[in-house]
Each structure stands twice: as C-alpha cells, then as structure tokens.
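Hello again,

I reread your note about wanting to compare the complex against the isolated chains. To keep things tidy I'm splitting this into two emails, and this first one only covers the full assembly. Below are the input lines as submitted, including protein chains and any nucleic acid or small-molecule components. They are followed by the predicted structure of everything together. The single-chain runs will come separately.
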Amino acid sequence: MNSAQVASRPPTDWASPKMRTRIARRYRSESIFRNLGLFALVLAASFLAFLLFTVVRDGWQGFLSTDVKISITYDPAVLGIDPAATKGPNAQAALQAGDFQAVMAAGVAKLGDEADTVSEGAWLVLRKQLMEDPALLGKTVSVWVPAKSTIDLLAKGKFDLSKPELERGVSDADVAHFNDLKKAGLLRTGFSRIFITGADSTSPELAGIWGATVGSLLTLFVTLSLAFPVGVLSAIYLEEFAKRNRWTDLIEVSINNLAAVPSIIYGLLGLAVFLNFLDMPRSAPVVGGLTLALMTFPVIVIAGRVAIKSVPPSIRDAALGIGASKVQVVFQHVLPLALPGILTGTIIGMARALGETAPLLMIGMRAFVSDTPVGLTSPATALPVQVFLWSDDVARGFVEKTSAAIMVLLVFLLLMNSLAIYLRNKYERRW
Amino acid sequence: MSLTFISLLLIGLALVGYFIARAKGRALTALPGGTARTGTAAVHSRPAYHGAFVALWVALPALALLAGWAVVSEGVIASRVLSTVPAATRPATQLDRDAFMSEVRGVVNGEIEEAFNPDANPAAKVYVATKTNYNLLAGAAAAALAALGGLWGYSRLRPDFRARTAVEKVVMWTLILASLVAILTTFGIVLSLLFESIRFFQKVSIVEFLTGTTWSPQTAIRADQVGSSGSFGAVPLFWGTIFIGAIIAMIVAIPLGLMAAIYLTQYAHARARRILKPLLEILAGVPTVVYGFFAALVVAPAVRDFAVSLGMTNASSESALAAGLVMGIMIIPFVSSMADDAITAVPQAMRDGSLAMGATTSETIRKVLVPAALPGIVGGVLLAVSRAIGETMIVVMAAGLAANLTANPFQSVTTVTAQIVQLLTGDQEFDSAKTLSAFALGLVLFVITLLLNIYALAVVKRYREAYE
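Full-complex prediction:
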C-alpha cells in the first residue's frame, strides 16, 4: 500500500519556481554558514595580528634609548681614587669604590639649565667606562649618558605637544630643555645597550631585560633537568612495564588531572611545601624551577606515552627474539625511536613553563631584583614576571619597556616552538 | 666542603668504579672458555653491566647516607650551636630558637652585617665551625661507605654472576619511583591545601566562607583599627569567577571556536588548513601575561569608553567584560581543537549518508555531525571552562580587585585566582586569616576544576569509544 502511494505521487518538479526559491534559500544558508566559519577564523587571526601589531608598535622603541652628551672630568680628587691604587692588583675594586655620583654631578652641572635632563643613574655608565679603560683617569672626555625618561619619550615623540601642559603629561620646562639640547646637537637616540644587558630598575631608562632573561634560563634549567628524566621514566613505566591494576589507574588519573590543574595551584603548593615547610629561599630560580617542573612533567609524560605507543610492536618482538631483556628492549630500541616525539612534547611543555607567571608570583619571584642573578639560589625574576611588574608600574616610560619585554619573550617562544616543529618534521617516522 | 661537592666527588668515584669493573668484566670474557656461550665459564652479563653494578654499589649507599644527613644536619647543628649559647640568654621556645638560628644563618651568609641579638655573632662562628666539621665527618663516612660498597660489589663479579639482573632491578625501581612522583604531587597539592584550609576554617566558619556575600579580607593589625573587621564571604568571588570565566568568556569562545573547527574540518582545503591551524596554535601559545597586558592596555579602555558612550557614568576602567572578552579569545584555540577532535571522530559513513540524501554541507553539519559530536563538544567546553576559571594573569591585570556582586559586565568584579594573588603577594604574616584564606580559595578552585576535569574527560572518553 505504501509503495502504491509513492508511485501515485507525481515526480518532483525541480524547475518549478517554488522549488527554485527553496533551493536558492538552502544554498544561501549554506554560503552564510560557510562564511560564518571563515569569519570566526579570520576574527581569531585578526585578533592575533592586532595583538602582535600593538606589541610591536609600542615595543620597538623600547629597544632604543636617548643619550645626552656631557663632558666629564675623571678627577681623582673628586672620585676619591688614589691613582697609584689603579695600577695594583686591586685596581678594579679601587675604581669601583670611586665617587662617580660627584663626578657626574660636576659634569651635568656644565649643562646649565639643561642639567635636569640626565638620568639619575647615569653615573653607572661612567663607572663602567672608567673600569673598562682606567687610562681615562684624570682626563676630560665627552660621554653619552642616558637621558631621563621624559626626555627619552619626547625624543621618541610619545607626547602630544599640541595639548595643554597638564593633559599631556610632560612639563613645559622639559619640552624647552629637550628642544635646546636637540638644537645644540647634544642628543642622540640609538640602540639601547642598557636594555639588552641590564637588570630591573626603578627608572625606565635604566631598566634592562637581561636579568629577567637569565632568571628565566636558570629556572628553565632546573625545570628541564627534573621534569625531563622523571617524565620520560614514568612514561616508560606506564607504557611498557606497568600491569593494569588499581595502582596504575591511580597514577594515570593523577597524571591526567595534574595536566589540567590551574597553574596557580602549583604556586600554592610551592609556597606551602618548598618555602614554608622545607625553608627554601624565596625568589630563587631553584624553587621556581621545582614548581614549574611539577607542572611540566605531566605534559612530558603524556607526550612521552603517545610517542612510545607509536613505536610498532614488531620492533620489540624482534629485539626480544634475539635475546634482549625487556629493559634492554626499551632503552636500546624503543626509547631511541620514540625520542623525537618525546623531545617535541618536552619543548612544548618547556615553552609553556617559560610563559608561566602565576606560580612564580606565589613563590616570591616578583621581588624587585636589580642585579643579574648569578646562581640557582640568588634572588631572581623571570621574563613573564618582569612583563607583569613593568605593566604594573606607573612610570610612563615602562609602557614601551613592557612591550619590548613581551617581544623578547615571544621571540624565545617562537624559537622553541619552531625547534619543536623542526624536530617533528625531520625525525618523526610514520610506521 | 659542601654537600654538593661531596656528591659530585661520589659520582666521580662511581665512574672510576664503573671503568675498573668493566675492565674486570672484559677480563672475565677473556678467560679460557669464557668468550662464547659455550663451556662452563660462560659469562652471564656483558662487561658494561658489571661496571654499572659496581658503580651503583659505590654511589647509592653513600648518596643515601648524604641525603639522610642533609635532612637532619640543620637540626643537629642547631642544637650544637644553641648549646654553646650561655644558658641565661638561651632562647627558650621553639619559635625563638628558629628565629635565633635564622639570624645566625643570616650572619653566616653575609645577608646581615651585624646581628640584632648579641649572642648570634659568636654563635655564627660556632655554626661555621660545626658545619664544616660535621660535613667533613659526613663526607668521610660517605667515602668509607662508597669504598666498602665498591669492594663488596667488585668481589661479587664472577663469570656466572647475574650483574644484568641486578642492574635491571635497580632500573625498574627507578622507573616505579619516577611514576610515583605524580601521585606524590597530587597528594602534596591536596594535603597542603587541606592543611592550611583547616587552619583557616578554625578562624572563620566554613558556612560564612561559602555563603557570605561580603569579602573584605583586611584583618585588623591593631585592635582599635577602623574598617578592617575582616569578613570572608567568598560568594562575590565565586560569582566573579563564573561571570568572567564561564559566561562572558564562553559567549566569545564557544561560537567562534566551534565555527572555526567546523570550517577547518569541513570546508577548508588541505593547504588552507596547513596555514590556519598553526595560526590557532600560536594563539594558544601566547603567554597569558601578554593577554593580560593587552586586556589592560587596549581592551579595558575601549570597553570603558564604550560604556561611557552608552551613558554609564560609573564605568570602571577594570571591567568584567574586558577580562572576559580577552579570556574568551584565549580559549578559542582550546575549544576549537576539542571540537575538531569530536567532529573528526564522527564516522565518515554518517556524513556520506546525509550528503547522499541531498543535504547541503551545512545541513549535514548542523543536523548530523554536530548532534552526533555533541557529547565530545560538551566535554571539550567543560574542559575549557575549567581552564578559564583557573586562569590567573588576565583577571589579575584586567578584572580588578573590588568584590562586587553584580551582573553588569561594565563593572569591576574579582575572581578567586585574582584574590589568591592579591592575598599572598602582600606583606602578611603566614598565620593570619587573610593569608590562610588564599589556601581555602585554592582548595575550592582545585576541587571544582578537578570535578569538571574528571567529568569532562569521562564524557569525552565515553564518546570516543562509542564510535570506535
């Protein structure tokens, strides 16, 4: 009866106007849907582009600094350095102890009205110069010293000078000084050595990124040397040796959940266990590294298991067949074949650790550290924490320094991720 | 002589032991009848295993001794140092003793020029002397143990000695220990959070914490201080967390992430996919502090200006909307990759069947693929929510610290994570309710994300198995 009904129905008239509009509507909704998908992707991509554009626009000038030319007399009497002492074995120490602030004050005073344009920390540059070239002692030389932040920002055109004085954030006096100096040819804006080689400072013109970079490297060193062996060994155990029982299930559940625990919880763990219970030093890269290692090793375990699983069983069977023990099979055959995959996962985990901020804040790595750290226990900060600290700073000059620090951080991340992609493409085998 | 140096020395000794024993192992194979797998003197293990066996015997017992010493040494040295302090001025309570010892250590490390406590300066000299003596003693004991272990291990090397089995047993134990780190970490997290939270709940009732609607953690330092009674009602924080992480961020991330995944899996050419997918991965790789900076510097002022243009007079420069929007964008790649997995797991036959019936691609996606993949997508979204509520830097930098209970996205709200950072980065003694409340907040965060993760992972797993 059913088939009779179907048969009795006239065939669909696809050319009828009703059918045509219906099909047109369906095609229209098809193309709208498709374009919505494209729109979502383009939106995400343009956000990324906008973010990078903003960072680079604000940040590239952070690598530049403005210097003022002043004439400095390295007078031993003012410095309080005995010229004879600079010949002896303790020459560097003697030079280091000199009163460079007085020398700078004398040199800056020669600028007259424009004396207020030089950074307060400029004497550090003088000390460095004299320590590198002790022969300058007693001589008068002209030196480029960093200008104070307002002058630096004026030189970079960061102020809208058409606004009234109170709204633009820079005083008329500073603008006048800046114009005078510029006219006299005493200003230059160039690549900032201080930013690349210095550590944190309270004045933007003296702040550098090197201290935080070293802090990050030391932290990552600790993280890598703990998380990689532990991660690889547990991956091997879980994938190759563990029997399926309740104990192994507990380990598996732990690892899967640890990989998804919010990073700040690891910070709380580090604070409670490493700092308060084990009494380890605050702000130290070793504690930061330990905390990040706990966070990174589940990632390495998961990547390691996938890599080990992808090694075909025939490799194991062949090695077992010629008399290798199970441990020999794993360490001499399976592990080398799985290593590229494990390394890729490790690098991605390390890149995540490099960008991590919250746990480091918890264990005190947000302290103001004006020296480049020298060891695993000396106070240090890390690149992302430095970004956070500078972004919090009210001084206007730190806006471009923050963006510049972000650029440095992103370059490191890009390098690590490119390495991971390169390794994956070059060594990964499809069985 | 520091413990690190002694440990390095021991590792050097172990290497020496390794080479000597390996040479012995080689000599064994050279014995008459020992070269091949024939004869009575066939050697069981390869020379390297003999070497490793002795090296382990040199290093492990001695290192274990050193590790034990490192744990107890501070206590032993402290009691020695304290016994030299004149009895009349000797610190009496445990707390005083700890303070005294940390002062002494400060003098020794050069962190403190001149100790506040007059006894600490001579004690510092005693400390250095005792520590040097004891470390030398420990070093000597470790060396003796290493020599003994090495000799004993060496004496066991024979052609029929199963060195490989012994070494592999150690390797197996190392593997088991490494995999236990995961359990230890989980327990460490649970115990440390629980322990501090219990101390917090002794000061503040758990009911007030979970149901109170005023959050002002400023406890009075002086008794007569005004306006800092300290009330710990965390509901505004929970609301702020849900508002930013689970509502605003998801309104951004779910449609965009889902549509991106649909386009990538169903429409994009293989070549376009090769370019677009890494793009999303870059978005996922940008550190959260960068998003936070961007939210605070660019998005928040724009949102405020927009609010002002809508006629709002009290628009704050820190708003829930700014933080939520940026967080949503941060989550897009995550949602998209989860949805991608879920959609590609739907069997090709279902898609082909729908297309064969004359449905357009978009009809197939909307009526067949997405409904079939829904459990997987929901699981992915739950994971994304768990990630968003645990996210810290964006809210610290863009959402503000005012604990408002408001549904107005242009107002400032605060979240659990932002408060944890705020509470623990000030200068506060460790026992105050203010500091401890951060751990209670951490515990709530941990429990909620854990439940979300377990549930979501179970959903995703069951879904995947359904189509396998």
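For quick reference: Strands of chain B lie at 215-216, 231-232.

B.
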